[in-house]
């Protein structure tokens, strides 16, 4: 038997307990390890998801940041582009202002030269007349314009500097935005697989100069707001510069016209004074010649009295030698003494008269010399005035050197609306600069009207006279009076041509001025009344054919024409009276008139004083209402109903219907185009209480009425149409003979005499 080891022996239960304890501990450790593994897996999954989410969130925020920076970059680029455009526009406006400033050098030089020329006047010709006043005002105005334009140029330069500074700030901010955008875009393209990623030292530090998002937005917003404010100021400045240029240009042109008119008026007065002085010199020279002749005759008579005086003295002396008592104081002695006394008194009287005559002759010669000197000074002054006028032609030769037409640029008006074009240029001056001066336009239209109107109206006059001798009708009476009115208008039109040729200065005898203006305007308004009567006659013949045929008598048309002439003459009588009133009162439309009270006005029915305008304006308004509006409304009513009735008639040929409609529409067009603009000037003048300058242009359409009336004659009367057809046929036959050298083609068969002169009944 083996010996038992000496040790502490455990029981089976203890062994079992130990095993159970080991198993329990192992199970617990495995459970703890499993929990730790689960936590590790959960932590790994959570951190992976967090990392992926943070990366995606960062990419999203980077994307938003890139979009935000891109938006601000685009906004800055747009603002910078607008600033560049505004700088270009302001630079252009500044250059135009500089051109306008440079263009004032010539007018200033011309005005100064005119003042220096007029300083060469001598004696009483060196007067402070309206010309000198206007020239000084023109010089002061040009200097003020130069100061204003120079101030605008300086302000524009300062504004350009402000815009340049704003552009610099925008450029710097835009460059920073571009660089930041490139960096953010490169960061957005990086991934964990990118080869250029690495760990950095302290990447979470805050760089110096960093700003908050609010400060970043405020910086860019401040740059944009500052640039927009500078652009608004620049736009307002450009608008002010353009308006100022236009206003100053209008002032310069108005002052230039006033100065030139004063120069022409002064030259006219100088010519009148020179002619009057020359007439006085001629009369004085004639008086000197007569006085010298009388002095010679007085001297001859004085010499002739010496012999009778010697004879009487000798007889008296010889009779003193009578001896003794024969030395008697008889009748012979008394007669000889009386004869001697009479002869001595006669000689003394002749000597006194001779002395007075010689003294008067000396005074006449002295005054003649003074008048010659004054004539020389007047001729010098007139020559200086003419040189001044020729010097001022430099302002109008070619294109206007002062006017600078600016192209349309975006502006900001006072209401804040942008992209508007400034329309500050005066239409009247643009029209004259583009086409021709006003007097040349008037002269051209007058000549055209005269050349066309005279032959056509003479032909119509002869035709209507022949027709009235055969078979008079009311329409022929009315059209004959309309022809007479046009011929009377054309008869006095050459005087208006001369006025336009002389630059709207009346150089003809002044007695023709009231008569020309009176008949000129009477025929215009008489034509409106006659055209209205023609429309009424046509309407009555169409609307009430049977009733009107019963009372259709030529004498009624004659009475109507007499009434029309009376109304026109009475309403326009003030046109004849007013020029004589201006002449008698010396009111030539100026408050500083220096001419004599008997000198006629330099213009004809163009310039008015405020007192005269208070009379003229209401009369013109009355002419507009009574002699234009009422006839125009009646004409419209008659012809509109005429066309409506005619369109409903089935038995009218198409050719005849079109001719009648053409007559109605043609008359309405003539009424509106020829008489509308001129009568509209009456209303505008009454509202503004001044005589409008564009009345002369509006009157041109009324002048053309003398050319358009024959068209109405052609449409209204078959006699005129047949006369014109025969005339054209005769001319065509003669041309055919000259061209072919053969007999003309067989003419159309002649109509019977009753058919030839048969007048068409009113449709």
From TrEMBL:
PROSITE patterns: G_PROTEIN_RECEP_F1_2
InterPro entries, sorted: GPCR_Rhodpsn (IPR000276), GPCR_Rhodpsn_7TM (IPR017452), GPR40-rel_orph (IPR013312), Tektin-like (IPR048256), Tektins (IPR000435)
Matching SUPFAM superfamilies: Family A G protein-coupled receptor-like (SSF81321)
The name this protein goes by in its record: Tektin 2 (testicular)
Alphabetical list of Pfam families matching this protein: 7tm_1 (PF00001), Tektin (PF03148)
Protein's UniProt keywords contain Protease: no
PANTHER family referenced in this protein's UniProt entry, alphabetically: TEKTIN
Single Gene Ontology MF annotation: G protein-coupled receptor activity
Listed Basic and acidic residues bias regions: 750-763
CDD domains listed in its UniProt record: 7tmA_FFAR2_FFAR3
Residues covered by the G-protein coupled receptors family 1 profile domain: 456-713
GO aspect biological process, one term: cilium movement involved in cell motility
Source organism per UniProt: Oryzias melastigma (Marine medaka)
Positions in coiled-coil regions: 238-301, 333-367
One cellular-component annotation, GO: nucleus
């Amino acid at each position: 038997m083996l010996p038992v080891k000496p040790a502490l022996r455990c029981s089976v239960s203890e062994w079992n307990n130990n095993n159970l304890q080991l198993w329990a501990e192992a199970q617990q450790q495995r459970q703890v390890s499993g929990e730790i593994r689960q936590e590790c897996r959960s932590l790994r999954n959570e951190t992976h998801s967090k990392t992926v989410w943070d990366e995606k969130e960062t990419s999203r925020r980077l994307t938003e940041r890139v979009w935000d920076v891109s938006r601000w970059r685009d906004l800055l680029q747009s603002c910078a582009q607008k600033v560049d455009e505004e700088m270009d526009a302001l630079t252009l406006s500044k250059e135009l202002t500089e051109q306008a400033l440079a263009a004032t050098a010539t007018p200033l030089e011309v005005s100064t030269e005119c003042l220096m020329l007029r300083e060469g006047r001598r004696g009483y010709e060196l007067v402070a007349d309206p010309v000198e006043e206007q020239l000084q005002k023109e010089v002061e105005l040009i200097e003020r314009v130069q100061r204003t334009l120079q101030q605008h140029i300086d302000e524009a330069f300062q504004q350009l500097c402000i815009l340049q500074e704003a552009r610099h700030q925008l450029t710097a901010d835009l460059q920073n935005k571009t660089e930041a955008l490139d960096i953010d875009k490169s960061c957005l393209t990086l991934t964990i697989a990118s080869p250029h990623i690495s760990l950095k030292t302290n990447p979470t530090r805050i760089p110096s100069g960093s700003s908050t998002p609010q400060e970043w937005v405020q910086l860019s917003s401040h740059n944009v707001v500052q640039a927009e404010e500078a652009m608004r100021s620049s736009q307002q400045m450009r608008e002010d510069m353009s308006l100022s240029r236009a206003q100053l240009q209008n002032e310069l042109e108005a002052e230039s016209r006033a100065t030139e008119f004063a120069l022409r008026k002064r030259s006219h007065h100088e010519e009148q004074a020179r002619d009057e002085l020359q007439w006085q010199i001629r009369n004085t020279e004639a008086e000197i010649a007569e006085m010298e002749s009388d002095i010679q005759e007085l001297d001859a008579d004085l010499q002739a009295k010496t012999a009778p005086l010697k004879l009487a003295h000798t007889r008296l002396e010889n009779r003193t030698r009578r001896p003794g008592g024969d030395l008697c104081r008889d009748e012979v002695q008394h007669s000889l003494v009386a004869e001697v006394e009479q002869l001595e008194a006669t000689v003394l009287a002749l000597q006194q008269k001779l002395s007075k005559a010689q003294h008067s002759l000396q005074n006449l010669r002295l005054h003649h010399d003074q008048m010659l000197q004054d004539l020389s000074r007047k001729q010098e002054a007139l020559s200086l005035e003419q040189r001044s006028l020729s010097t001022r032609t430099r302002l109008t030769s070619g294109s206007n050197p002062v006017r600078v037409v600016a192209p349309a640029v975006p502006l900001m008006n006072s209401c804040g609306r942008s992209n508007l074009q400034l329309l500050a240029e005066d239409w009247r001056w643009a029209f004259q600069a583009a086409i021709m001066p006003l007097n040349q336009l008037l002269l051209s239209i007058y000549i055209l009207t005269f050349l066309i109107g005279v032959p056509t109206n003479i032909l119509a006059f002869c035709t209507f006279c022949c027709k009235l001798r055969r078979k008079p009708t009311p329409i022929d009476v009315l059209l004959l009076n309309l022809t007479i009115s046009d011929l009377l208008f054309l008869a006095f039109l050459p005087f208006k041509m001369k006025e336009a040729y002389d630059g709207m200065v009346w150089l003809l005898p002044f007695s023709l001025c009231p008569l020309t203006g009176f008949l000129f305007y009477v025929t215009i308004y008489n034509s409106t009344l006659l055209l209205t009567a023609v429309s009424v006659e046509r309407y009555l013949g169409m609307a009430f054919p049977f009733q009107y045929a019963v009372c259709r008598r030529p004498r009624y048309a004659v009475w109507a024409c007499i009434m029309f002439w009376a109304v026109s003459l009475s309403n326009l009588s003030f046109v004849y009276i007013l020029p004589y009133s201006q002449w008698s009162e010396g009111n030539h439309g100026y408050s500083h008139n220096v001419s004599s009270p008997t000198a006629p006005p330099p213009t004809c029915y163009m310039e008015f004083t405020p007192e005269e305008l208070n009379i003229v304006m209401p009369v013109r308004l009355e002419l507009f209402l009574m002699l234009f509006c009422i006839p125009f409304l009646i004409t419209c009513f008659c012809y509109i109903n005429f066309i409506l009735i005619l369109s409903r008639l089935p038995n009218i040929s198409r050719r005849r219907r079109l001719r009648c409609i053409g007559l109605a529409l043609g008359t309405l067009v003539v009424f509106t185009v020829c008489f509308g603009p001129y009568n509209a000037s009456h209303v505008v003048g009454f509202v503004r209480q001044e005589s409008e300058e564009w009345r002369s242009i509006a009157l041109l359409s009324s002048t053309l009425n003398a050319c358009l009336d024959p068209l109405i004659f052609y449409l209204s009367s078959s006699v005129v149409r047949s006369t014109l057809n025969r005339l054209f046929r005769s001319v065509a036959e003669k041309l055919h003979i000259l061209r072919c050298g053969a007999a003309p083609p067989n003419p159309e068969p002649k109509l019977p005499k009753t058919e030839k002169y048969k007048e068409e009944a009113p449709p």
